[in-house]
Amino acid sequence: MSRKKNNRIQRSGPFFVIYQDMFNSDAFRSLNCKERCLLLELFAFYQPSREDVFLSTRDAAKRLKIHRDTACKAFKSLEDRGFIRLTQGALWQARLTRTWRLTFMEYQGREPTDEWRDYKSKADPKRSDKVSESSGRSWLIDAVKADL
Question: pTM score > 0.85 for this model?
Answer without folding.
Answer: no
